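job 3f2a | input accepted
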Amino acid sequence: MNTPDRYRFVIQEGYTPGTLPMARLAEYMSKMASLLGEKSHVHFVRLESGSAAMVQEVEPEAQPAVRERIHAIRENAAPPDARQAYDALNELLGEDRTSGYLSDDDTPQTPGARLLEFPGAAALDHEVVYGPFTEISELQGVIIRVGGELNEVPVHLKDGEVVHICHAKRELARTLATHIFGQPLRVIGKGRWTRHVGGRWSMIRFLISNFDQLKHDSLSNVIADLQRVANGTPAPADALEALHTLRHGED
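job 3f2a | predicted structure (251 res):
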């Protein structure tokens, strides 16, 4: 009988289970779940004493995928959502002025192999970071999950391989839930961002205030529209407004 794989995420200093706030633990757990993937088959086991250490267990059927994902992160060949989760964990550790690592089959008595290092504060001390900034922003994607018991409900928005974890007030979240697995949406809200040297942006938080549904045109319709333009249809005076109409339809 196959046994579950176990992974241990260790916050090396600064926190113990008695001093780690529950809300902060929830942030670490959420990002670790995104990093490992296979969320239906990965389970939180316990928070160990000493330095705060989160133990996760992976069911046998998901083990190959999780192992491959961790290897891809280590080799800098991971899909965007996995890399985003790694960066988010690193930033959490940096904000807490500490570092961490992920190991396999690790216990306090028998340390396992370190699979991923999270330099956290050490990396941020050598990287120029601007912000964080708060501004009205837009994201787009398909709603794949809405749920939670807080007043600001987590809303998972998938854009290609990237999953944005946003939040919305309960009334708006209820409306967003009716679009789950439906057509892509554009969500508008207050985003909090940091900008790294080299131009990479990281989203810290996004509170949705409004949304609209993107028009879903078939490829044949889009080609037909382009052909009409190519065949000499006069360009409208306001090209931007025309493009908006093609994308969203008439207001």
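job 3f2a | The radius of gyration is 22 Å.
job 3f2a | closed
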